Amino acid sequence: MSILTKLRLLPGATPPPPRKRKTAEVSGTVEFLETSRLVAILVFCATVGAIVLISFVGVNTLNLPVLPNQLASVRIVASVPFSYVSAEKTRLTKEQRVNRLPPVYRLEMEPLRLFEAHIHELITQLDKIDREHSKDSPERRSAINEAVDAFNAKGPYRVSSEDVATVMSVGDAKTRFSLIENGLLSLREIYNEGVQDGRTLGLSTKPDGVTVFQITKPNGEVTQRPVQTMEDALTFLRINLMAEGSGRDVSNALFRIFRNGLVPNVMFDAEATARLRTEAVQDIKPVTEHVDRGQTIIEPGTRVTPAQYEMLEAHRKYVLEHGDARVDQGLQLFGRMLLVLGMVMASVFYIRLEDQETLQSNGRLALLALVVIVNLALVRLSFWLGELPFFVNNTTAASILPYIAPTALAPLIVAILLDYGSAMFMALLISIFASVIYGNRLDILVMTFVASMIAIFCSRSARKRGRVVRAAGLGGVTVAAFALLMGIVDQLPAITVLKQMAAGLGTGFVTGIIVVGVLPVLEGLFKRTTDITLLELTDFNHPLLRLMQMEAPGTYHHSLVVAQLSENAANAIGANPLVARACALFHDIGKTKKPEYFTENQRDRANPHDENNPSLSALIIKAHVKDGIDLALKHRLPRAVIDVIQQHHGTTLIRFFFQRALNDSRHGTNPTGSTAPMVAPGLVKPVEAPKVCESTYRYDGPKPQFKESAIIHLADGVEAASRSMKKVTPQHLGELIDQIFRDRIEDGQLDEAPITFEELSKIKSSFTFTLLNMLHSRVGYAPAEEGSGTPAPTKAQA
Fold this sequence. Notes:
two-stranded antiparallel sheet, mainly alpha
């Protein structure tokens, strides 16, 4: 008992609110979805529609697996004459015209504007220096240096103090201003003409070396005009400055100052260029191509060009839209629907003959449909990857796509969750449609089917998740072997064969990992239980088994014996021994709620039933089934375990308390269990004892519904009865087992279980053999004789 529970039991403590017990009852909606034939028909129609959509829509005889830049393996010719507007040829024509058009430029005046502003600021500072400082004074030179440094910092200028000093030595401020304005005027003329650095592309070059450019005017009009180079512009600037007659030294100083404001100002005008190119191609009409019947569209062994691919697409479109081909396509689609319908119908007939349980369960049918549809969708996804640019440009990579299709995914899941027969049929179904998706390739059908069969065979009785991965990996090895053989036959390059083998092998192991990952999800979604989950439940460190060991050790030992009996009997009749063992271990977990009310846990303690009337004792005994279901649901045990907990007593009679109630009724014992006669209030004459209702002393059921449940039902009774035997002999034990079996059959407890008398006979033999080995006697030993080192055996021998 936990500390919190003990605290709640203290005087004055608030008792905990009663917790609602969980039940295993199934809602009406769930039952309808599970058993309705309408739902089954919807699942069937959805499966057919999904397979048709995945396997055939977008994949037909007209859509051959040919993509631009791929190496064509077959010759494709036009089956009918047709014409089409070639967007590719039109695009090439436009590109040719656009490539002949020279770019458009504009004149950038911003550098000149900035230079003018900066040079005026410099002249203003120089005039101030001239007024404030006398010539040849150190302060004057220092101030000139500071002004020049400030000017150079404002732009990419490299003006020297000596040149500025030379300009300042010329006349007064008015004269200097005139020289500066004449220099700026020359720069404006040069900028308006345009200056190019010799690397820009012009329209043409005149004999005198002047290049003609297309220049945009401020109003947007494009004109052709000559543009001088940087060298010509510097020459023009020098000549203009020399013409002022201010002396050689002053002219050179001015040139060195003003050349800092001269930069190439012919800039590419992207907007005007695009507008000009758009206007140039507006009058180009779409190019129409005419193709004759029998004309070759694609040659084998050559790369498919965009123009050839466009022609092929136009041919497909024309054939689909004109003439009898449209009827042929409709007939093809109808034929494919018939193929899918026939394959699915064959699956239904197979399930009807070999697996009636799946046909009667919409959940199992939905599981089959889901995994098949998802598997085919993954195959189609691998086919679609071939349209990606990487695979279009890399035929070696595209050749591995059939080997990365996880065709063994659904067969493995079906083999583990349902049965191996259905898994093999699903493997054939998926292999057929995978080959159809990849262009009716027989080699893919054979390869994928054999690989899936190997994976199914190796996953038999898989009780560990690593076994599933290994089985899928062996399927991948099979695919790799096929890739090697087909590569040798087709004389493929070694690198291509190695890539295909690596793809097949890797896909196998990835498939196994995916199966291991999705199994728990599918188990919970479709109420299935795998041997892997059952094996994990048999771990004695499971919380419920640990609880039983601590709270109800007698029940725990009883469960171990029942588990051994059930497992051996299940092996004998071909049932699932792991289901029988796991369910038997948990069948009595409800007794951990009130373990002291069950004989195997009482040991030397008093029997609490002695103080209760028979009906209350029967109610407590029956409650362990509901308590067990509550614990199983709380710990998320599989549905099979919950069913066994609910069915392991069937509707059997609790004979001890029923007999005790009959005796009490005959002797007039009152409900409290005392022997005082029952007397009605105000009357002297005793009241007649009420009749005993048998249903009060019967378990609520249901009766066992499957073989493993029936085995545990019988093993539970046989193990409990065998504990009362004083002497265990084959004869006595056989008589006891026969009596229990006969009572259960006569009571109708096995009426709903799919078990035969032949199987019951095998179960009897298995129980007898197991119990005789468990309950065997040993040789008794007397105390050791004095002086002897070994004890003397007694007459009691087994």
